[in-house]
Amino acid sequence: MAIDEHENEPKTSLGRLTRRSFLSHVGAATAATAIAPLASSSASAEAAPTEAASTKIPGTVPITLRVNGQSHAVQVDPRATLLDTLRETLHLTGTKKGCDHGQCGACTVHVNERRINSCLALAVMQQNAEITTIEGIGGPENLHPMQDAFVEHDGFQCGYCTSGQIMSAVAMVKEPWGKTDADVREAMSGNICRCGAYPNIVAAVQAVRRMS
Amino acid sequence: MDQISESKIIGVATRRVDGPLKVSGAAMYASDHHFPGLLYAWPVCATIAKGSIANLDSAQAEKMTGVVAVYHRANIGKLYRVPPAAGMSLILDEKRPPFEDDEIRYYGQYVAVVVANTVEQARAAAESVKVTYNRDKPDANSKLLGSPLTTDKPEEKSKRGDTATALKSAKVKVDEVYTTPVETHNPIELHASVAVYDGQKFTLYETSQAVVNHRDVLAQMLGVPPEQVQVITRFLGSGFGGKLWPWPQSALAAACARNLNRPVKLVVSRQMMFQNVGHRPAIEQRIQLAAEPDGKLTAVQQDYVNHTSMLDDYDEGCGEITPFIYSTQNLLVTGGLARRNVGNPTAMRGPGAVPGLFALESAMDELAVSLKMDPVQFRLKNEPEMDESLNIPFSSRHMKECLTVGAEKFGWSNRTPQIGSMKKDGVTLGWGVAACSWLAARSETQASVELRQDGSARVACGTQDIGGGTYTVLAQIVSHETGIPVSKIDVVLGDSALPSGPISGGSWVTASVTPAVLEAAQKASQALLLVAVKSDGSSFKGKKPEDLELADGMVRQKGQAQGAVPMAEVLQIAKVNSVSGQGKSEGTLEDSKPKYSFHSYGAQFVEIGWQPEIARLRINRVVTVIDAGRIMNPRPARNQIEGAVVMGIGMALFEETMYDSRSGAPINNNLADYVMAVNADTPQIEVTFLDYPDYNLNALGVRGVGEIGLAGVAAAITSAVYHATGIRVRDLPVRIEDLLPMPKVNIA
Ligand code: FES
Ligand code: FES
């Protein structure tokens, strides 16, 4: 079993380790857009068409998904949710699973620019859709204004609900909501944050709304 | 102990160093790890809560597409028991290894596990494993006081004076029972284990609040030396105590990887989160308080019973805070455990203190009402001079100031005590207050710091960042000592191969890592100065290292900015890549004769709005004042307190895991039916830190803020509810039907 040796070697930094381990898992082709090191800006935003994990597994079917502006030909279990396909087949693990039942919002992605719970969508039914995940919004080196606002306002603690919060927030800003904090609280209530970073989430979203 | 009062970075609001990774989905949590040839495991859960397996038929499951193996008691292979815990090592709650026998003791207990090529195949096959049971009637009864206990009689936890006599002769008394239901931690990150085995060594990616303990436990269970197990938790989607100690899925994933010699991922489902990974137990507490008519407390008695599992003893320790929070000559705390057919309970945020203070602070409010005294004044009157349970001084206690500052900020002086007497915009207001406390401690810690030729530093410690901001705290401490900016400091944690660090529990990570990291940074600096005086070409050659210092990332003559040379240049001239230092700090937890009583303190003020005509209860605002030593990084610290207040609202109004009395199944086992506070439930929360350094705990005077913010919130809310409605809710959560004048209908 070829495990990248770096996985066992705690010698690198927070950022570098993350990148190296990611590279070792999925191959350099798909990694560049997803994760850049904390301390380096060299990662290219260009990603080649991918066949990530398209190895034939018994019981899977071929489909093509468009994710973050790129087509991916993959083999998936016909029962696979969009969430599991993003995470387990495309290795876009920024999208998180918190409940698998449409109850927490951790898996929020955009499908044709609208926010959805990807755990409630079957991958095979999303073949003609434009899917955007947190990786498509911005990387650590080129944060989207909403991502930057979440860091600036400390809109998270553990960070696990955060991808979903940000995907929800980016979509919410374009939806017809009122101006008040209470509107944001209402609009963001499909995304549970067990750490309870709600006041800071509202502050981050409002900061971005004021900017635009 | 040394005191460091001046700093450019300690106490300064600092952006989290791991923030960009978290907001871009690049932070790697346990279940994000993927390896070539990865297989997926899905457990089969018992559908009874008591009885035994009569037959387990996996023939059909084994034939299903993509299935690689089905493991159960007969073929899982060796999994050993773990010897009793020693200090902070070898701790786990559910001591029986999975599949050890055929008996079922709680609903959802793992009875088999399927491994397949895809997660969908594993799950479908797990659902096709046919298990028949010999079924017994389970006991999940939440009536606890008076139940048979695991001990002959309740255990005495703390005692002084003669409580029985004082209660008998008391002028004013409260004697009530308070109950708190099972609460489930429900971090948004599901527990997960990705196990990799190379024929000799296990590399385990775990959702762990304690990687070093996790390694030690898993090494024992797998029967290999600890060197052959490495546990990695780079990021944790929080835990709230539920991820402190290993749960059976970790051993299952490792055993599957071992048996198949392939990497295996096992992600627990949300349903299993209610069964297999711990919970705060159901608790009943009887509180008896007595006071003189002037409000002086004369006796405090607390008797609690919490439920535990059939095999293991989990003691919630509800008397954690009771013995020292108020002055009283007579005090007795007793506790007992009652066995139920439930999975093992475990520590949940503020274990003991949080439910304990719900009961005690509710009773204090009830006594204040009986005394016709203002509840803030009543507490101020009973402020102790010292820790009366241990007869030692408090290290740093500013409880009175928490109450007075909070009262001031809240506008407490405008409160009218009559029930339902305060109105705003047609809404009845209720104002409530509670005091709170949580322990402060250090746990033994090792850390290393490296200063490198490229001008950066690296700090390593085998602790975890579960959301509290530990990555940033470690960088701040190194930056403080060396002057290297936080942006140039790499922080490495979450790996059992690193110098052994503290568990992320007890709110003691920051207090524990501070001395060890300071020492490591000082030693690395000394090593650098030695390089400076010994290297050819160095302008400091031949000087005495003790005349030099590292300041603002530069080596210089002590106190002289002139002639300073950047650290990087010193190392480059010497052709040395890096210098390093190790640091170690002792724990306070093992101290059997402590000199000081270390705790944090706080006060919670709550306003609720009550509209009986539409049965609407809202938390309008919360004012929280916290005395938790010096605050290392105010931004995440405030965030943690606010988040804890939000959790407290959930505890008071929503959270309860309900068990079906016939099947023993947790029936609201999902995030729609187990209600937690969402964004729309969040009131205006104002957090104030008193910021008194506690130099007896460490040189920076920092304690920790992970748990204290939750303590007291529920009692302040139920007191506010009483103030608005006249109804005292003693059984959490407060239900709207508790507050409406409806005849009670008994459905038999
Ligand atoms: S994982 Fe999709 S909503 Fe929770
Ligand atoms: S940041 Fe932890 S759940 Fe939201």
UniProtKB/TrEMBL annotation, chain A:
The record, for Gene3D superfamilies, names:
3.10.20.30, [2Fe-2S]-binding domain
**GO cellular component term, pick one:** periplasmic space
2Fe-2S ferredoxin-type domain location, by residue?
61-137
Give the molecular function GO annotations. 2 iron, 2 sulfur cluster binding; metal ion binding; oxidoreductase activity, acting on the aldehyde or oxo group of donors
- CDD domains for the chain: fer2
Respond yes or no to whether keyword Zinc is given for this record. no
One matching Pfam family = Fer2
Q: Which InterPro entries match?
A: 2Fe-2S-bd (IPR002888), 2Fe-2S-bd_dom_sf (IPR036884), 2Fe-2S_ferredoxin-like_sf (IPR036010), 2Fe-2S_ferredoxin-type (IPR001041), 2Fe2S_fd_BS (IPR006058), Aldehyde_Oxdr_Iron-Sulfur (IPR052914), Beta-grasp_dom_sf (IPR012675), TAT_signal (IPR006311)
Keywords from UniProt, A to Z, are: 2Fe-2S, Iron, Iron-sulfur, Metal-binding, Oxidoreductase
Electron transport keyword on record: no
Output this protein's name: Xanthine dehydrogenase YagT iron-sulfur-binding subunit
Question: What is the originating organism of this protein?
Answer: Granulicella mallensis
TrEMBL record, chain B:
Which InterPro entries does this UniProt record tie to the protein? Ald_Oxase/Xan_DH_a/b (IPR000674), Ald_Oxase/Xan_DH_a/b_sf (IPR036856), Ald_Oxase/xanthine_DH-like (IPR016208), AldOxase/xan_DH_MoCoBD1 (IPR008274), AldOxase/xan_DH_MoCoBD2 (IPR046867), AldOxase/xan_DH_Mopterin-bd_sf (IPR037165)
Report keywords, A-Z: Molybdenum, Oxidoreductase
Q: Name one Pfam family in it.
A: Ald_Xan_dh_C
Q: Which residues form the Aldehyde oxidase/xanthine dehydrogenase a/b hammerhead domain?
A: 24-137
| GO molecular function per UniProt | iron ion binding; xanthine dehydrogenase activity
Show the ranges annotated as biased composition (Basic and acidic residues): 152-162
Where is the region Disordered?
137-164
Q: What is its EC number?
A: 1.17.1.4
**What is the superkingdom listed in this entry's lineage?**
Bacteria
The protein's name in its UniProt record: Xanthine dehydrogenase YagR molybdenum-binding subunit
Keyword Oxidoreductase listed = yes
**Is Oxidoreductase set as a keyword in this record?**
yes
Top EC class for this record: oxidoreductase
Q: Which SUPFAM superfamilies match?
A: CO dehydrogenase molybdoprotein N-domain-like, Molybdenum cofactor-binding domain
